[in-house]
Amino acid sequence: MVDSDFQHTLAKSSSLAGTSLHTGEKVTLTLKPAPANHGLKFRRIDLKDEPFIDAHVSKVQKVERATTLAEGSVKVHTVEHVISALTGMGVDNAVIEMDANEPPIGDGSSAPFVECIKQAGLEKQESLRNVYEIREPIHKEFPNGSILTIVPDKKFRVSCTHAGPNGRMTQYLSMDITPDTYENEIAAARTFVFYEDVKPLMEKGLIKGGSLENAVVIRDDTTLSKEPLRFENEFVRHKILDIIGDLALCGKRFMGHVIAVMPGHASNTEMAKLLSAHFAKQASMVKPVSIPTGKAVLDVNEVMQILPHRFPFLMVDRIVDFEGDNKCTGVKGVTINEPYFVGHFPGHPVMPGVLQVEGMAQVASILMLRKSENQGKIGYFMSADKVKFRKPVFPGDSLFIEAEIVKIRRNIGIATARCLVNGEVVSEADLKFSLFAP
Predict the structure, then answer these.
(1) How is residue 129 annotated by DSSP?
(2) Long-range contact set of residues 284-287: C-beta below 8 Å, sequence gap at least 24
(3) Quick check: is 265 catalytic?
(4) How many CA atoms lie within 13 A of 39 on its CB side?
(5) What pLDDT was estimated at residue 140?
(6) Geometric angle at alpha carbon 216, from 215 and 220, rounded to 5°
(7) Is 110 helix (H, G, I), strand (E, B) or coil?
(8) Cα–Cα distance measured from residue 107 to residue 84, given in angstroms and rounded to the nearest whole number
(9) Could you give the dihedral angle defined by the CA atoms of residues 356, 360, 365 and 367, in that order, rounded to the nearest 10 degrees?
(10) What is the per-residue pLDDT across 248-270, written as a single tens digit (0 to 9) for each?
(11) pLDDT of 131 strictly over 60
């Protein structure tokens, strides 16, 4: 079972060899572990300097019958099956080494890559996953009839309708995508081609390694392959396989319901571009800012350049002191105008303790964000331990919030913090949080 909150890589390297679908070349592919936040990267070890290519939509060069990535003159063809397998099985960080420009086609599905991943095993990493939550529908229609929509959902779900020429082999499937459902319901679905498309593809110099051993050929209303169909609706399952691989090129995992009608690599990668643009738009809401070192004061406008919080949830009005790299003090002026006093409590206004803890977390986040490598990120609360509330906080109090970072490992920080009024401790806690690039 993959812990979905944390990033994962491979426990060790694992290889498979075979023939490429379109080029027909012999190739050995090796999946290797990679550090946290590395992402998925291809590496052409058959070329001088063994160049890398990011598995990102910005590198997409061509999408005819497969997805091709390029970095300058270096190319990698038909990347969707291996990316789909890594993404579907919960691998966030890996190096995909190849001694040719296209992965082996295997049996036309992603099952060989799943087996390769299982042989390597998964290793949990300390960094949390940065999962983007779709908040509003993203929709695009294409001239060829393809329609892709992504709507909000607390899981990753794909609903797909596949329809061939003249409505042949129309199939529909909808399911949540998890490592378990991917391995058992999606991975084994093979690539397919309509008989009338075979000759044009061969004339274009494609499918040189294609055969009935690695593809299903649809002729009229019958199918030709070395073995019977693995699923009654194998074609739409393979379309979902491709969707998972192509959308992973957006650069982030996301929670959302993908609704696809007659999808293809072109429409899938265009949607990946839209997703990438949405991520960039969100990131632009939090801009890097130069935070002073040594003794310094930050006013509320500078605080808002660092933290994404706004009314009514910004719990820091000012930073009044930094002490070295690991300590600072913030101030929150508590007034009767705070919206929570309406109900907490009528006739006896008291600042909720949970908001004092939130103030401690915000001040501690500023300490983490002070480091140059963290600027522009957002702090996410992970846990609070040894929380104590010693005295109530009332309107008119000036809440001094002291925080000290006691441990940092990559993007995870552990801090001790306390709130004081008139020099007396009113609350304290040990906090754990993580920083993510939005």
Answers:
(1) P
(2) 285/438, 286/376, 286/377, 286/378, 286/438, 287/376
(3) yes
(4) 16
(5) 94
(6) 145
(7) coil
(8) 15
(9) 150
(10) 999 999 999 999 999 999 999 99
(11) yes
Cis, bond preceding 51 (omega within 30 deg of 0) = no
Distance CA 148, CA 160 (A): 9
Contact 45, 120 (CB under 8 A): no
C-alpha torsion sign, points 372, 376, 382, 384: positive
- Exposure on the CB side of residue 38, measured as CA atoms within 13 A: 20
Mean pLDDT value across residues 123-149 = 91
Residue of 87, 149, 130 lying closest to 275 (CA atoms): 149
Q: Is 321 helix (H, G, I), strand (E, B) or coil?
A: strand
**Cβ–Cβ under 8 Å, residues 135 and 21:** no
Reply yes or no: is the peptide bond before residue 345 cis, omega within 30 of 0: yes
Question: What pLDDT does residue 215 have?
Answer: 82
Residue count of the chain: 438
Task: Tell me the two tokens of residue 354.
Answer: 């949970």
Q: pLDDT for 170-215, tens place per residue?
A: 999 999 999 999 999 999 999 988 888 777 766 776 667 777 777 8
DSSP-assigned beta bridge partners for residue 15: 30
257, 265, 309, 348: which one is catalytic? 265
Q: What are the distances in angstroms from CA 57 to CA 67, 261, 277?
A: 10, 21, 11
Q: What is the pLDDT of the chain when averaged over all its residues?
A: 89
Query: Are 77 and 100 in contact, with CB atoms under 8 Å apart?
Result: no
DSSP category for residue 186: I
Query: Which of the residue ranges 66-75, 91-100, 322-331, 385-394 would you say has the lowest mean pLDDT?
Result: 322-331
Give the angle 105-114-49 at the CA atoms, nearest 5°.
Answer: 65
Q: CA angle, corner 438, sides to 279 and 362, nearest 5?
A: 150
Return the SS3 of 386. Answer: strand
Mean pLDDT of 419-423: 93
Is residue 287 predicted with pLDDT exceeding 50? Answer: no
Pair 393, 350: CB distance under 8 Å: yes
344 in active site: yes
One-letter identity of residue 109: S
Q: What is the DSSP letter of 208?
A: T
Q: What domains can you pick out in the chain, each with its CATH number?
A: 6-283 (3.30.230.20), 300-436 (3.10.129.10)
